[in-house]
Amino acid sequence: MTDTTNQAASAGTVPATAKCVIIGAGIVGNCLVGHLSRLGWTDMVQIDKGPLPNPGGSTGHASNFIFPTDHSKEMAFLTLESQRQYVDHGLNNTSGGIEVARKPERLEEFKRRMTSAKAWGIDSRLVTPAEIKELVPFINEEILLGGFYTPSVSCVDSLETGTQMRNEAVAKGALQVFANTEVLDIETEDGPGGPTVKAVVTNKGRIECEYVAIACGVWSPRIAKMAGANIPLTPAVHQMADVGPIDILQQSGKEVAYPIVRDMDTYCYERQTAGSMEVGSYAHRPIFMHPDDIPSNDESALSPTELPFTADDFDQQFEEAIDLMEMLGEAEIRYAINGLLSLTPDANPVLGETVEVRNLWSAAAVWIKEGPGIAQIVAEWMTYGYPHLCDPHSTDISRFYPHEKTEHHILARCAEHFNKTYGIVHPREQWASQRGMRRSPFYAREEALGAVFFDARGWERPQWFESNAKLVDKFPEAFTPRQHEWDARWWSPITNAEHLQMRESVGMVDLTAFNEFDITGPGAMAYLQYMCVNNVDVAVGRSVYTPLLTQHGGFRGDLTIQRLGTDHFRIITGAFDGGRDNYWFRRYMPTDGSVTFTDMSQGICTLGVWGPNAEKTMAKIVTDQSKPYDVSQTGFPYGAVREVLIDGVPCIMFRISYVGENGWEIYTNMEHGLRLWDTIAEAGKEFDIIPVGIGVYAITGRIEKGYRLMGAELESEYNPVEAGLARPKVKSADFMGKAEYMKARDEQPAAIMCTLSMDSQRCAAGYDRFPTGGNEPILTLDGERILDAKGRVSRVTTAGAGPSVGKYLLLSYLPPQHAVEGTKLQVMYMNECYPVTVERASATPLFDPDDSRMKS
Amino acid sequence: MRILVCVKRVPAPGARINIAADGQAVDTAFLGFTMSPHEECAVEEAVQLVERHGGEATVLTLGPSEADEQLRYAASLGVARAVLLPITGPDWDPQRTASAITAAITDLEAADGAFDLILFGNESADSGGFQVGIRVAHALGRPMVNGIKGIDVDGDTLRARREADVGVEVYEVPMPAVLGVKEGINLPRYPTLKGRLASKKVDVAQVVPQAEAGGQQMVRLLPAAEQVSATVILGRGPDAAAAVVDMLQEIGVLK
């Protein structure tokens, strides 16, 4: 297709006004203008500082291949949707692809990939070295142990796909395009909701506009900074060399005749490009560049993102490539670059409206494989307020806390994960860099108790305590040995022992990573009624648990809100959603000044105290000034929020539980925290109080109670009815997503959140396995994938031991025909199937189903 | 044949060349480096001559220690030996460079015998002084022809060709001789992966050069006047035909 935008592209000046300016004409920017135009947007202007059709960004030198399997649901969806769109454009060249193993642990990873492929409906199979040789006759199969073959792996034309999408918007009259147009500034104006986009200033004039979308890849941070916003990513080098000519490839007469090979254990790939082979690597040292230092198109020998090849960094990969394909040794190095791509602190894309500037959108993908899908969800997000394609939980720009958006953090984390691009990354894997960034006041005590700390968005949270190791002997029934190293990695049997000790007596849990947001002012109640599904108009001193919905009626959040005064509410939410919830509440605040939002999180620490002896423990130390406080269920009922003194420390106690036990979340100022910890530890001594890790709080205690977690069970694709969280009545006040929610209540749910147990965990090798909760598919007894009426796949959202129920438990949505208690199904884990039983087809907990332990 | 090729490490710039603030050098902050295109052809010619006639090629450069990269690049193409005359600071002037290279050649020849042929690029890609090769040849008392686009070896005699305004000039030169090679004499090969890996193992001899400064001094570099090329769109589709015809007549393609 010819480029019909050249005429506009070379026009002299930009229009004075536009509805939306899209900056960047790579795969994402081009697909974004196309998708926006399909959703009805008009009056758009797209600019790029480079020429068209290849303005010189990462798209221009991309390897353009797609391996669809990903362990992350969101990334798998975005990749599969992108591949589907490339097919739509007729620019998806299916070549097949093989990931090959040189090391035994890689074969294990391939079993995991088979499982993820099954979950997402991707046809893949494990292949022997001989079978690899049949598919790729020039490979040295003698150094290989096996492979993971996916026939649908493809090579795409990202430049032409983008051009077609751009042209589509131009042809509709929805878009004007300006190439060779550089952004000099993004103007904002202060408004009641914070700074808002006003205009984009370019070297060809100023465009006053309502929306700006930044889709300029490696330059994103630089452009965002012009508006006072932050898109946390860094340009990083990915080395590649095109070597040839090679006879067998030339003789194929095709662009890609042989499957693409990913040599996983050397972090390299070999991809045919007509008569030569492209060898690319993620094995070299991390090489970063500041966005301000990227040369201009004029200054670049090739293009701004094709930097001079530093051969020394690649020599080892050349040697390994020759080991794999001897013919490469005689091939000539015809083109070799240090290609720039975007890396983000957690390796996921960065999408959504920036938290700093209204109507300024980030559309920063990492790879070509996900570009069109990302453009689609950003377009939907801009149009509907939230995407429809899939929940953007792991790509949402507002997930980051301020310290995670510093160059220091970005570079440290990117340096850590770059070499894991082809790595084997455990679902529970912990970061090594940037640790100790946020510590609760209890940290010193926890460290002394042998806490094994996991990172929770910068917080150091004890996952378990080595000081509790002796309890493993006390509860031998809870100890199920995990023979396979993978199952035992980042895990300890101490978690099960802590769980049982808490259920037997009392435990204390550091919950300082919680976020607390105060909503105050005369409009607070009405505003929160609009944001929340459940009625927040409760008595002062009471609380409410509530889902937050998207405009489309899917889950956007779930949290508790305490009413501390007539016009004073406190939102309590978790570490992993704090950033997203912070943004969401601020985004929809009334702009008339009737509501004030205050993030209290930095000043408040939280300790959970739970167990049958929690009440006795707290009764010793809680006072109302000098009088003992009645902490009985009568005096201090479930759901109540009270200001108290604990050994003189002013605290707020909230009777609630996420582990199914009687007790409280206790909040105090950070500076009082250590004294609070010591006081409770001392008071609980006679009950053998123990510190309890997040392993219990987030997994074992939670799963026995069937409690749902945002980002796992709760996603925007699902509604409260399906999640089993719909209350019998609906409040009269309007709220976001209400219409869709009411509709969902009238319909038969397409899927129901269920608790399943594993009937047997015994693998073919004769020992027990323990799924990690990483999207393992639930299968029929015939081994078929289960899809609901909306096309959503049944997969494990959380997995974990239930020490008190003596079962290994899984949470999964199931369609109604399977969501029947007693139904027998299977779960696939590491490419083996295990029998499971549906234990609960509702939110009713498996442990203590009537909640008597919490409420009596 | 024993052949020596002299090369120079130069930046590989884009369309626009940035000059450092002091005007004394090209700003190479984000540039890669290469050898001059004429020299790439000289290296290729040396490798081909050795392939045809046997013997050994050596590559030599005077430059910063990073010029090791260019020596190994030559080695990756088939040059067997490499010599670095390391200097620090700004480039040496042509006279001083030639003097140092002459001294180094004298030492190399004293140790291993004379080079039958010494190849230079016609001129360097950055400073373009057109001097070093001629000065070295003169100092060594050997015949020298510049602008060479073809070399044939016949016994002890070289036949070297270069393009003239009309036709081709052919020189017969007795060996040992010095030639300045021009781009177009051949199509330089790319290194193979094996060549690249082998070049890592080549022992680069280092001899710290000693030479007096010559008479030429650089005052400062100035950017060339920017060439503005405006694109005029004559029209689109069939409607553009008349304007295209007018333009073709204007530039004399159509009468």
Describe the protein's architecture and organization.
- With 856 residues, chain A is of the alpha+beta class.
- Chain A is built from 23 helices and 41 strands.
- In chain A, a hairpin with a 6-residue loop joins strand 19 and strand 20 (360-364).
- The N and C termini of chain A lie far apart (72 Å).
- Chain B is an alpha/beta fold.
- Chain B has one domain: HUPs (Rossmann fold, 3-Layer(aba) Sandwich).
- In chain B, 28% of the residues lie in helices and 26% in strands.
- Chain B has helices at residues 37-53, 68-77, 94-112, 132-140, 193-199, 241-250; strands spanning 2-7, 9-12, 32-35, 56-63, 81-86, 117-121, 144-154, 157-163, 168-174, 177-181, 204-206.
- In chain B, the strands form two sheets. In chain B, strands 9-8-7-10-6-1-4-5-11 form a nine-stranded mixed β-sheet, sandwiched between helices. Chain B has a two-stranded antiparallel ribbon with strand order 2-3.
- The mean pLDDT of chain B is 93.
- Chains A and B meet through helix 9 and strand 18 of A and helix 5 of B.
